[in-house]
Amino acid sequence: MISHHNGNNPFLFFHGSYKKPLTKRNPFPLSPKVPSFPSSTATPVLQVSRVHFIHSHFSAKRLSRQVKGKVEDVLLDYLHSSRGYSFVDAEFISKNSPSFVQGLVSEFHGQDDDVATCLRKWLWYNPINEFEPFFESLGISPHELPLFLPRGMMYLSDDHVMLANFHALSNYGVPRNRVGKIYREAKEVFGYPNGLLLSKFRGYENLGLSRSMVIKLVVCCPSLLVGETSVELAMVLDWLKKIDIGHDWIGNYMSCLKTYDPRRMLDAMQFFHEVGYTEEQMHNFFKENPALLLEGLEKKLYVFLGLAFKLGLNRNVIYSCFVEYPHILTTKCAKNLLGVIGFLHYLGMDIDDISRILSNHMHLLSSHPLKGPKAVCSQLKLRKADLCQIIKDDPLKLISLASKLKQNSNLQLLRDDPSKHLGKTTFLLKLGYAENSEEMAKAVKRFRGRGDQLQERFDCLVEAGLDYNIALKMIKCAPMILNQKKVVIQKKIDFLRNILGYPLDCVVAFPAYLCYDLERIMLRFSMYAWVAERKAAKPMMALSTILASSDDKFVKYIVNAHPEGPAIWDGLKKLLLKDKSQLFP
Q1: Of 114, 131, 158, which one is at a domain's C-terminal end?
Q2: What whole-number distance in Å separates Cα of residue 461 and Cα of residue 482?
Q3: SS3 for 403?
Q4: Among the four 159, 230, 337, 581, which has the fewest Cβ within 10 Å?
Q5: Which domain, by its residues, includes 114?
Q6: What's the rounded mean pLDDT across residues 444-464?
Protein backbone atom coordinates (compact mmCIF):
# COMPACT_ATOMS: atom_id res chain seq x y z
CA MET A 1 0.00 0.00 0.00
CA ILE A 2 1.37 3.43 -0.87
CA SER A 3 1.38 5.88 2.01
CA HIS A 4 -0.33 9.21 1.50
CA HIS A 5 1.16 12.54 2.44
CA ASN A 6 0.18 13.92 5.81
CA GLY A 7 1.16 17.54 6.42
CA ASN A 8 1.72 16.81 10.09
CA ASN A 9 4.10 13.94 9.43
CA PRO A 10 7.58 15.10 8.44
CA PHE A 11 8.86 11.63 7.75
CA LEU A 12 6.91 9.31 5.45
CA PHE A 13 7.76 6.08 3.73
CA PHE A 14 5.77 3.85 1.42
CA HIS A 15 5.02 0.17 1.78
CA GLY A 16 5.44 -0.14 -1.99
CA SER A 17 3.73 -3.32 -3.06
CA TYR A 18 3.46 -1.86 -6.56
CA LYS A 19 6.30 -2.53 -8.97
CA LYS A 20 6.42 -1.67 -12.62
CA PRO A 21 7.08 -4.80 -14.70
CA LEU A 22 10.63 -4.80 -15.95
CA THR A 23 11.27 -5.72 -19.57
CA LYS A 24 14.07 -8.09 -20.38
CA ARG A 25 14.59 -6.98 -23.94
CA ASN A 26 17.58 -4.88 -24.89
CA PRO A 27 17.17 -1.12 -24.56
CA PHE A 28 16.59 0.74 -27.78
CA PRO A 29 19.52 2.74 -29.14
CA LEU A 30 20.23 5.97 -27.35
CA SER A 31 22.15 9.05 -28.39
CA PRO A 32 25.59 8.34 -29.93
CA LYS A 33 27.07 10.25 -27.03
CA VAL A 34 25.70 7.72 -24.59
CA PRO A 35 27.72 4.50 -24.09
CA SER A 36 26.09 1.31 -25.29
CA PHE A 37 25.30 -1.54 -22.91
CA PRO A 38 25.50 -5.29 -23.44
CA SER A 39 22.32 -7.27 -23.43
CA SER A 40 21.65 -9.70 -20.59
CA THR A 41 19.09 -12.31 -19.79
CA ALA A 42 18.96 -10.96 -16.22
CA THR A 43 17.39 -7.67 -15.26
CA PRO A 44 20.11 -5.07 -15.77
CA VAL A 45 21.04 -2.89 -12.81
CA LEU A 46 22.51 0.55 -13.29
CA GLN A 47 26.04 0.26 -11.93
CA VAL A 48 26.50 3.59 -10.22
CA SER A 49 26.87 1.77 -6.94
CA ARG A 50 29.71 0.94 -4.58
CA VAL A 51 33.16 1.66 -6.05
CA HIS A 52 32.00 3.66 -9.05
CA PHE A 53 29.46 5.56 -6.98
CA ILE A 54 32.06 6.57 -4.41
CA HIS A 55 34.67 7.33 -7.08
CA SER A 56 32.29 9.60 -8.95
CA HIS A 57 31.66 11.53 -5.74
CA PHE A 58 35.25 12.76 -5.85
CA SER A 59 36.23 12.75 -9.50
CA ALA A 60 33.14 13.76 -11.47
CA LYS A 61 32.80 17.31 -12.72
CA ARG A 62 30.65 19.52 -10.54
CA LEU A 63 27.12 19.70 -11.89
CA SER A 64 25.58 22.97 -12.89
CA ARG A 65 22.46 23.91 -10.96
CA GLN A 66 20.36 23.50 -14.12
CA VAL A 67 21.61 19.97 -14.87
CA LYS A 68 21.33 18.93 -11.23
CA GLY A 69 17.72 20.10 -11.11
CA LYS A 70 16.86 18.17 -14.28
CA VAL A 71 18.43 14.96 -13.00
CA GLU A 72 16.68 15.30 -9.65
CA ASP A 73 13.36 15.70 -11.47
CA VAL A 74 14.02 12.56 -13.51
CA LEU A 75 14.90 10.59 -10.38
CA LEU A 76 11.80 11.91 -8.60
CA ASP A 77 9.59 10.89 -11.51
CA TYR A 78 11.20 7.44 -11.66
CA LEU A 79 10.74 6.77 -7.94
CA HIS A 80 7.21 8.12 -7.85
CA SER A 81 5.77 6.94 -11.16
CA SER A 82 7.72 3.75 -11.81
CA ARG A 83 8.49 2.50 -8.33
CA GLY A 84 5.39 3.57 -6.44
CA TYR A 85 6.97 5.88 -3.87
CA SER A 86 4.77 8.61 -2.44
CA PHE A 87 5.54 11.98 -3.99
CA VAL A 88 6.87 13.34 -0.69
CA ASP A 89 9.27 10.42 -0.27
CA ALA A 90 10.42 10.52 -3.88
CA GLU A 91 11.04 14.26 -3.73
CA PHE A 92 12.97 14.06 -0.45
CA ILE A 93 15.23 11.26 -1.72
CA SER A 94 15.93 12.94 -5.05
CA LYS A 95 16.75 16.29 -3.40
CA ASN A 96 18.93 14.80 -0.66
CA SER A 97 21.15 12.29 -2.45
CA PRO A 98 23.61 14.56 -4.34
CA SER A 99 26.37 11.94 -4.64
CA PHE A 100 23.99 9.43 -6.17
CA VAL A 101 22.73 12.08 -8.61
CA GLN A 102 26.35 12.89 -9.50
CA GLY A 103 26.97 9.20 -10.13
CA LEU A 104 23.97 8.97 -12.46
CA VAL A 105 25.17 11.89 -14.56
CA SER A 106 28.73 10.57 -14.76
CA GLU A 107 27.38 7.69 -16.90
CA PHE A 108 26.59 10.15 -19.68
CA HIS A 109 28.96 12.30 -21.67
CA GLY A 110 26.56 14.31 -23.76
CA GLN A 111 25.64 17.95 -23.59
CA ASP A 112 23.68 19.25 -20.63
CA ASP A 113 20.46 19.34 -22.63
CA ASP A 114 20.78 15.60 -23.42
CA VAL A 115 21.32 14.35 -19.87
CA ALA A 116 17.70 14.35 -18.66
CA THR A 117 16.42 12.71 -21.83
CA CYS A 118 19.14 10.07 -21.87
CA LEU A 119 18.72 9.29 -18.20
CA ARG A 120 14.95 8.95 -18.49
CA LYS A 121 15.36 6.44 -21.32
CA TRP A 122 18.06 4.62 -19.39
CA LEU A 123 15.86 4.19 -16.32
CA TRP A 124 13.09 2.64 -18.41
CA TYR A 125 15.26 -0.44 -18.86
CA ASN A 126 17.90 -0.23 -16.11
CA PRO A 127 16.53 -0.22 -12.55
CA ILE A 128 18.72 1.26 -9.84
CA ASN A 129 19.58 -0.03 -6.39
CA GLU A 130 17.05 2.02 -4.45
CA PHE A 131 18.85 1.59 -1.13
CA GLU A 132 21.68 3.85 -2.28
CA PRO A 133 19.83 7.16 -2.70
CA PHE A 134 17.52 6.21 0.16
CA PHE A 135 20.35 5.75 2.68
CA GLU A 136 22.20 8.82 1.42
CA SER A 137 19.06 10.93 1.94
CA LEU A 138 19.01 9.75 5.56
CA GLY A 139 22.52 11.07 6.17
CA ILE A 140 24.71 8.02 5.51
CA SER A 141 27.73 9.14 3.47
CA PRO A 142 28.81 7.42 0.23
CA HIS A 143 31.94 6.13 2.01
CA GLU A 144 29.78 4.17 4.43
CA LEU A 145 27.26 2.80 1.95
CA PRO A 146 29.05 -0.51 1.23
CA LEU A 147 28.74 -1.32 4.94
CA PHE A 148 24.97 -0.83 5.00
CA LEU A 149 23.64 -1.96 1.63
CA PRO A 150 21.73 -5.25 2.08
CA ARG A 151 23.07 -8.11 0.00
CA GLY A 152 20.91 -9.54 -2.73
CA MET A 153 18.33 -6.75 -2.50
CA MET A 154 17.87 -3.69 -4.66
CA TYR A 155 14.24 -2.75 -4.05
CA LEU A 156 13.56 -0.92 -0.82
CA SER A 157 9.96 -2.12 -0.83
CA ASP A 158 11.14 -5.73 -0.47
CA ASP A 159 12.41 -5.13 3.08
CA HIS A 160 9.04 -4.83 4.84
CA VAL A 161 10.41 -5.13 8.39
CA MET A 162 12.94 -2.36 7.93
CA LEU A 163 10.33 -0.12 6.35
CA ALA A 164 7.88 -0.77 9.17
CA ASN A 165 10.46 0.41 11.70
CA PHE A 166 11.31 3.46 9.62
CA HIS A 167 7.58 4.22 9.66
CA ALA A 168 7.51 3.76 13.44
CA LEU A 169 10.31 6.32 13.83
CA SER A 170 8.56 8.65 11.41
CA ASN A 171 5.20 8.43 13.08
CA TYR A 172 6.73 9.13 16.47
CA GLY A 173 8.35 12.30 15.10
CA VAL A 174 12.03 11.46 14.61
CA PRO A 175 13.40 13.86 11.95
CA ARG A 176 14.15 12.02 8.74
CA ASN A 177 17.64 13.46 8.40
CA ARG A 178 18.56 11.97 11.80
CA VAL A 179 17.43 8.42 11.07
CA GLY A 180 20.74 7.61 9.36
CA LYS A 181 22.56 8.09 12.67
CA ILE A 182 20.23 5.62 14.40
CA TYR A 183 20.64 3.11 11.56
CA ARG A 184 24.43 3.54 11.67
CA GLU A 185 24.77 2.97 15.42
CA ALA A 186 21.87 0.65 16.21
CA LYS A 187 21.08 -1.26 13.02
CA GLU A 188 19.32 -4.04 14.94
CA VAL A 189 16.50 -1.61 15.73
CA PHE A 190 15.32 -1.91 12.13
CA GLY A 191 14.76 -5.64 12.49
CA TYR A 192 12.31 -5.31 15.39
CA PRO A 193 8.91 -6.99 15.13
CA ASN A 194 5.85 -4.80 14.73
CA GLY A 195 5.05 -2.66 17.78
CA LEU A 196 8.31 -3.21 19.69
CA LEU A 197 9.84 0.14 18.77
CA LEU A 198 6.72 2.02 19.85
CA SER A 199 6.71 0.17 23.17
CA LYS A 200 10.28 1.37 23.78
CA PHE A 201 9.23 4.96 23.18
CA ARG A 202 6.36 4.50 25.63
CA GLY A 203 8.77 3.05 28.19
CA TYR A 204 10.84 6.24 28.18
CA GLU A 205 7.74 8.41 28.32
CA ASN A 206 6.75 6.47 31.44
CA LEU A 207 9.95 7.76 33.07
CA GLY A 208 8.45 11.24 32.89
CA LEU A 209 10.04 12.40 29.64
CA SER A 210 8.21 14.45 27.04
CA ARG A 211 7.97 13.14 23.49
CA SER A 212 10.36 15.80 22.21
CA MET A 213 12.87 14.79 24.86
CA VAL A 214 12.56 11.10 23.96
CA ILE A 215 13.20 11.97 20.30
CA LYS A 216 16.29 13.99 21.20
CA LEU A 217 17.56 11.19 23.43
CA VAL A 218 17.19 8.37 20.90
CA VAL A 219 18.87 10.46 18.21
CA CYS A 220 21.78 11.33 20.51
CA CYS A 221 21.85 7.93 22.25
CA PRO A 222 20.67 5.33 19.68
CA SER A 223 21.74 2.54 22.04
CA LEU A 224 18.73 3.42 24.22
CA LEU A 225 16.57 1.61 21.65
CA VAL A 226 18.54 -1.62 22.04
CA GLY A 227 17.57 -4.02 24.80
CA GLU A 228 15.40 -3.10 27.77
CA THR A 229 14.61 0.42 28.94
CA SER A 230 17.92 1.90 30.13
CA VAL A 231 18.29 1.49 33.88
CA GLU A 232 21.20 3.95 33.81
CA LEU A 233 19.04 6.64 32.19
CA ALA A 234 16.31 6.08 34.78
CA MET A 235 18.90 6.55 37.54
CA VAL A 236 20.24 9.71 35.86
CA LEU A 237 16.70 11.13 35.81
CA ASP A 238 16.28 10.27 39.50
CA TRP A 239 19.50 12.11 40.27
CA LEU A 240 18.39 15.15 38.28
CA LYS A 241 15.21 15.22 40.33
CA LYS A 242 17.23 15.01 43.58
CA ILE A 243 19.41 17.96 42.65
CA ASP A 244 16.43 19.98 41.42
CA ILE A 245 17.13 19.92 37.68
CA GLY A 246 14.22 19.25 35.34
CA HIS A 247 14.17 16.11 33.19
CA ASP A 248 14.05 18.00 29.90
CA TRP A 249 16.95 20.28 30.85
CA ILE A 250 19.66 18.01 29.45
CA GLY A 251 17.92 17.91 26.07
CA ASN A 252 18.62 21.62 25.60
CA TYR A 253 22.36 20.96 25.66
CA MET A 254 22.53 17.78 23.59
CA SER A 255 23.95 18.01 20.10
CA CYS A 256 22.73 15.60 17.44
CA LEU A 257 26.28 15.64 16.09
CA LYS A 258 27.48 13.78 19.18
CA THR A 259 26.64 10.46 20.80
CA TYR A 260 26.07 10.26 24.54
CA ASP A 261 26.15 7.39 27.01
CA PRO A 262 23.79 7.39 30.05
CA ARG A 263 26.27 5.20 31.93
CA ARG A 264 28.94 7.92 31.74
CA MET A 265 26.39 10.50 32.94
CA LEU A 266 25.50 8.31 35.90
CA ASP A 267 29.16 7.67 36.74
CA ALA A 268 29.84 11.42 36.86
CA MET A 269 26.90 12.12 39.16
CA GLN A 270 27.67 9.24 41.50
CA PHE A 271 31.34 10.20 41.66
CA PHE A 272 30.66 13.76 42.82
CA HIS A 273 28.14 12.45 45.35
CA GLU A 274 30.54 9.84 46.71
CA VAL A 275 33.40 12.30 47.20
CA GLY A 276 31.17 14.48 49.35
CA TYR A 277 29.55 17.18 47.23
CA THR A 278 26.12 18.35 48.38
CA GLU A 279 23.04 18.25 46.16
CA GLU A 280 23.11 22.06 45.96
CA GLN A 281 26.73 22.01 44.82
CA MET A 282 25.96 19.35 42.22
CA HIS A 283 23.00 21.42 41.00
CA ASN A 284 25.14 24.53 40.53
CA PHE A 285 28.04 22.58 39.10
CA PHE A 286 26.12 20.76 36.38
CA LYS A 287 24.03 23.84 35.56
CA GLU A 288 27.25 25.72 34.90
CA ASN A 289 28.92 22.80 33.09
CA PRO A 290 26.27 20.74 31.26
CA ALA A 291 28.90 19.14 29.03
CA LEU A 292 30.50 17.57 32.07
CA LEU A 293 27.27 15.74 32.88
CA LEU A 294 26.43 14.83 29.28
CA GLU A 295 29.87 13.63 28.28
CA GLY A 296 30.97 12.34 31.68
CA LEU A 297 34.40 12.48 33.27
CA GLU A 298 37.47 11.29 31.43
CA LYS A 299 39.69 8.69 33.05
CA LYS A 300 42.53 11.12 33.73
CA LEU A 301 40.19 13.45 35.60
CA TYR A 302 39.08 10.59 37.85
CA VAL A 303 42.74 9.78 38.52
CA PHE A 304 43.58 13.40 39.31
CA LEU A 305 40.63 13.85 41.67
CA GLY A 306 41.49 10.62 43.46
CA LEU A 307 45.07 11.80 44.00
CA ALA A 308 43.93 15.29 45.01
CA PHE A 309 41.72 13.91 47.76
CA LYS A 310 44.54 11.62 48.95
CA LEU A 311 46.80 14.66 49.14
CA GLY A 312 44.25 16.30 51.42
CA LEU A 313 42.86 19.00 49.11
CA ASN A 314 39.63 20.43 50.51
CA ARG A 315 36.55 19.38 48.55
CA ASN A 316 35.08 22.87 48.69
CA VAL A 317 38.30 24.36 47.33
CA ILE A 318 38.22 21.96 44.39
CA TYR A 319 34.50 22.63 43.85
CA SER A 320 35.01 26.41 43.81
CA CYS A 321 37.92 26.06 41.44
CA PHE A 322 35.92 23.89 39.04
CA VAL A 323 33.00 26.34 39.08
CA GLU A 324 35.21 29.35 38.43
CA TYR A 325 37.54 27.64 35.94
CA PRO A 326 35.55 24.86 34.20
CA HIS A 327 38.36 24.34 31.67
CA ILE A 328 40.19 22.41 34.40
CA LEU A 329 37.75 19.55 33.83
CA THR A 330 39.15 18.76 30.39
CA THR A 331 41.42 15.77 29.84
CA LYS A 332 44.28 18.02 28.79
CA CYS A 333 44.16 20.04 32.02
CA ALA A 334 43.78 16.92 34.18
CA LYS A 335 46.87 15.48 32.48
CA ASN A 336 48.78 18.70 33.19
CA LEU A 337 47.80 18.62 36.88
CA LEU A 338 48.87 14.99 37.16
CA GLY A 339 52.18 16.12 35.68
CA VAL A 340 52.48 18.78 38.40
CA ILE A 341 51.93 16.19 41.15
CA GLY A 342 54.47 13.84 39.59
CA PHE A 343 57.01 16.64 39.13
CA LEU A 344 56.77 17.86 42.72
CA HIS A 345 56.79 14.32 44.10
CA TYR A 346 60.00 13.59 42.18
CA LEU A 347 61.65 16.62 43.77
CA GLY A 348 60.81 15.22 47.20
CA MET A 349 58.25 17.86 48.17
CA ASP A 350 56.06 16.85 51.11
CA ILE A 351 52.33 16.24 50.76
CA ASP A 352 51.26 19.40 52.60
CA ASP A 353 53.25 21.66 50.30
CA ILE A 354 51.97 19.90 47.16
CA SER A 355 48.41 20.31 48.47
CA ARG A 356 49.01 24.00 49.22
CA ILE A 357 50.42 24.73 45.78
CA LEU A 358 47.57 22.94 44.00
CA SER A 359 44.92 24.64 46.16
CA ASN A 360 46.25 28.13 45.44
CA HIS A 361 47.32 27.82 41.81
CA MET A 362 45.32 24.97 40.27
CA HIS A 363 43.76 27.09 37.53
CA LEU A 364 47.15 28.35 36.31
CA LEU A 365 49.03 25.07 36.62
CA SER A 366 46.31 23.22 34.71
CA SER A 367 47.12 25.16 31.54
CA HIS A 368 50.82 24.24 31.41
CA PRO A 369 52.32 20.90 30.40
CA LEU A 370 55.64 20.48 32.20
CA LYS A 371 59.02 19.23 31.07
CA GLY A 372 60.47 16.25 32.89
CA PRO A 373 61.97 17.12 36.30
CA LYS A 374 65.32 15.47 35.41
CA ALA A 375 65.61 17.61 32.29
CA VAL A 376 64.77 20.80 34.19
CA CYS A 377 67.32 20.09 36.94
CA SER A 378 69.96 19.34 34.32
CA GLN A 379 69.13 22.44 32.30
CA LEU A 380 69.24 24.72 35.36
CA LYS A 381 72.17 22.83 36.91
CA LEU A 382 70.25 22.52 40.18
CA ARG A 383 69.89 19.71 42.67
CA LYS A 384 66.40 18.37 43.27
CA ALA A 385 66.31 19.81 46.77
CA ASP A 386 67.32 23.28 45.54
CA LEU A 387 64.65 23.34 42.82
CA CYS A 388 62.12 22.08 45.34
CA GLN A 389 62.91 24.98 47.70
CA ILE A 390 62.66 27.55 44.87
CA ILE A 391 59.18 26.31 43.97
CA LYS A 392 58.10 26.26 47.64
CA ASP A 393 59.12 29.90 47.98
CA ASP A 394 57.43 30.94 44.72
CA PRO A 395 55.11 28.27 43.29
CA LEU A 396 54.68 30.15 40.00
CA LYS A 397 58.37 29.54 39.34
CA LEU A 398 57.25 26.01 38.45
CA ILE A 399 55.62 27.44 35.33
CA SER A 400 58.39 29.83 34.37
CA LEU A 401 61.12 27.21 34.82
CA ALA A 402 59.45 23.99 33.70
CA SER A 403 56.56 24.78 31.34
CA LYS A 404 56.77 23.49 27.78
CA LEU A 405 54.80 26.51 26.59
CA LYS A 406 56.34 29.83 25.66
CA GLN A 407 56.03 32.29 28.52
CA ASN A 408 54.15 35.56 28.17
CA SER A 409 53.81 38.68 30.22
CA ASN A 410 50.48 37.69 31.78
CA LEU A 411 52.08 35.41 34.36
CA GLN A 412 54.52 38.15 35.42
CA LEU A 413 51.65 40.62 35.75
CA LEU A 414 49.75 38.23 38.00
CA ARG A 415 52.84 37.75 40.15
CA ASP A 416 53.78 41.45 40.37
CA ASP A 417 50.28 42.94 40.63
CA PRO A 418 47.87 40.86 42.76
CA SER A 419 45.09 43.40 42.13
CA LYS A 420 44.87 41.99 38.61
CA HIS A 421 43.52 38.83 40.17
CA LEU A 422 41.28 40.35 42.82
CA GLY A 423 39.94 37.91 45.38
CA LYS A 424 36.21 37.30 45.71
CA THR A 425 36.29 38.16 49.43
CA THR A 426 38.00 41.48 48.72
CA PHE A 427 35.30 42.36 46.22
CA LEU A 428 32.54 41.47 48.67
CA LEU A 429 34.16 43.61 51.37
CA LYS A 430 33.96 46.53 48.94
CA LEU A 431 30.24 45.86 48.54
CA GLY A 432 29.79 46.27 52.28
CA TYR A 433 29.72 42.69 53.55
CA ALA A 434 31.27 42.27 57.01
CA GLU A 435 34.38 40.11 57.14
CA ASN A 436 33.93 36.58 58.56
CA SER A 437 30.19 37.18 58.97
CA GLU A 438 27.43 34.69 58.19
CA GLU A 439 26.20 37.09 55.50
CA MET A 440 29.65 37.03 53.90
CA ALA A 441 29.72 33.22 53.93
CA LYS A 442 26.37 33.10 52.12
CA ALA A 443 27.51 35.72 49.63
CA VAL A 444 30.63 33.74 48.75
CA LYS A 445 28.37 30.84 47.71
CA ARG A 446 25.95 33.05 45.78
CA PHE A 447 28.47 34.97 43.71
CA ARG A 448 30.29 32.94 41.06
CA GLY A 449 33.54 33.95 39.44
CA ARG A 450 36.80 35.53 40.45
CA GLY A 451 36.83 38.83 42.26
CA ASP A 452 38.17 40.69 39.23
CA GLN A 453 35.41 39.18 37.04
CA LEU A 454 32.70 40.19 39.52
CA GLN A 455 34.16 43.69 39.69
CA GLU A 456 34.11 43.95 35.89
CA ARG A 457 30.45 42.92 35.77
CA PHE A 458 29.54 45.38 38.52
CA ASP A 459 31.41 48.18 36.76
CA CYS A 460 29.43 47.64 33.57
CA LEU A 461 26.23 48.49 35.50
CA VAL A 462 27.73 51.77 36.69
CA GLU A 463 29.15 52.51 33.24
CA ALA A 464 25.66 51.99 31.79
CA GLY A 465 24.43 54.93 33.89
CA LEU A 466 23.33 53.51 37.24
CA ASP A 467 24.32 55.27 40.43
CA TYR A 468 27.01 53.33 42.34
CA ASN A 469 24.93 53.01 45.53
CA ILE A 470 21.82 52.04 43.60
CA ALA A 471 23.80 49.36 41.76
CA LEU A 472 24.96 48.04 45.15
CA LYS A 473 21.37 47.72 46.39
CA MET A 474 20.35 45.95 43.17
CA ILE A 475 23.16 43.42 43.50
CA LYS A 476 22.21 42.62 47.08
CA CYS A 477 18.57 42.12 46.01
CA ALA A 478 19.48 40.01 42.99
CA PRO A 479 23.00 38.51 43.31
CA MET A 480 22.45 36.39 40.20
CA ILE A 481 23.02 39.51 38.10
CA LEU A 482 26.78 39.20 38.61
CA ASN A 483 26.83 35.49 37.85
CA GLN A 484 26.48 36.32 34.15
CA LYS A 485 29.19 37.32 31.72
CA LYS A 486 29.67 41.03 31.18
CA VAL A 487 28.63 40.78 27.54
CA VAL A 488 25.29 39.17 28.51
CA ILE A 489 24.51 41.96 30.99
CA GLN A 490 25.36 44.55 28.35
CA LYS A 491 23.09 42.86 25.77
CA LYS A 492 20.14 42.93 28.17
CA ILE A 493 20.66 46.61 28.99
CA ASP A 494 21.04 47.44 25.30
CA PHE A 495 17.84 45.53 24.45
CA LEU A 496 15.96 47.37 27.21
CA ARG A 497 17.01 50.85 26.18
CA ASN A 498 17.59 50.75 22.44
CA ILE A 499 15.11 48.11 21.28
CA LEU A 500 12.27 48.35 23.81
CA GLY A 501 12.71 52.06 24.50
CA TYR A 502 12.52 51.69 28.30
CA PRO A 503 14.65 53.93 30.54
CA LEU A 504 17.42 52.23 32.53
CA ASP A 505 15.74 53.29 35.79
CA CYS A 506 13.14 50.54 35.20
CA VAL A 507 15.62 47.90 36.34
CA VAL A 508 15.99 49.63 39.71
CA ALA A 509 12.41 48.74 40.61
CA PHE A 510 12.79 45.29 39.03
CA PRO A 511 16.48 44.22 39.09
CA ALA A 512 15.43 40.62 38.36
CA TYR A 513 15.00 41.74 34.72
CA LEU A 514 18.76 41.25 34.33
CA CYS A 515 18.49 37.69 35.66
CA TYR A 516 16.02 36.36 33.07
CA ASP A 517 17.49 34.62 30.04
CA LEU A 518 17.54 36.54 26.78
CA GLU A 519 15.21 34.08 25.05
CA ARG A 520 12.37 34.74 27.50
CA ILE A 521 12.99 38.50 27.37
CA MET A 522 12.98 38.63 23.57
CA LEU A 523 10.00 36.29 23.17
CA ARG A 524 7.72 38.00 25.68
CA PHE A 525 8.62 41.56 24.74
CA SER A 526 8.27 40.82 21.03
CA MET A 527 4.74 39.63 21.72
CA TYR A 528 3.97 42.56 24.00
CA ALA A 529 5.33 45.07 21.44
CA TRP A 530 3.08 43.58 18.75
CA VAL A 531 -0.01 43.84 20.98
CA ALA A 532 0.86 47.34 22.26
CA GLU A 533 1.42 48.56 18.70
CA ARG A 534 -2.20 47.63 17.96
CA LYS A 535 -3.45 49.51 21.02
CA ALA A 536 -4.56 46.26 22.68
CA ALA A 537 -2.24 46.76 25.68
CA LYS A 538 -1.16 49.86 27.54
CA PRO A 539 2.24 51.29 26.55
CA MET A 540 5.33 50.97 28.75
CA MET A 541 3.88 48.18 30.87
CA ALA A 542 5.94 47.28 33.94
CA LEU A 543 8.82 44.91 33.30
CA SER A 544 7.69 42.62 36.12
CA THR A 545 4.20 42.26 34.60
CA ILE A 546 5.63 41.11 31.29
CA LEU A 547 8.42 38.86 32.54
CA ALA A 548 7.47 37.57 35.99
CA SER A 549 3.88 36.50 35.27
CA SER A 550 3.21 32.82 34.65
CA ASP A 551 2.77 31.52 31.11
CA ASP A 552 -0.99 31.17 31.61
CA LYS A 553 -1.39 34.75 32.85
CA PHE A 554 0.80 36.12 30.08
CA VAL A 555 -1.30 34.35 27.46
CA LYS A 556 -4.56 35.45 29.13
CA TYR A 557 -3.74 39.13 29.58
CA ILE A 558 -1.24 39.86 26.81
CA VAL A 559 -1.53 37.30 24.01
CA ASN A 560 -5.32 37.04 24.06
CA ALA A 561 -5.70 40.80 24.24
CA HIS A 562 -5.84 40.80 20.43
CA PRO A 563 -7.81 38.31 18.27
CA GLU A 564 -4.74 37.48 16.20
CA GLY A 565 -2.51 37.27 19.27
CA PRO A 566 -2.48 33.45 19.67
CA ALA A 567 -1.37 32.93 16.06
CA ILE A 568 1.39 35.53 16.40
CA TRP A 569 2.49 33.97 19.72
CA ASP A 570 2.77 30.51 18.14
CA GLY A 571 4.71 31.98 15.23
CA LEU A 572 7.18 33.74 17.52
CA LYS A 573 7.80 30.54 19.51
CA LYS A 574 8.39 28.53 16.32
CA LEU A 575 10.76 31.20 15.05
CA LEU A 576 12.70 31.05 18.30
CA LEU A 577 12.91 27.25 18.14
CA LYS A 578 14.11 27.47 14.54
CA ASP A 579 16.83 29.94 15.51
CA LYS A 580 17.90 27.68 18.40
CA SER A 581 18.06 24.61 16.17
CA GLN A 582 20.35 26.46 13.76
CA LEU A 583 22.66 27.44 16.60
CA PHE A 584 22.32 24.02 18.24
CA PRO A 585 21.80 21.32 15.63
Answers
A1: 158
A2: 10
A3: strand
A4: 581
A5: 65-158
A6: 84
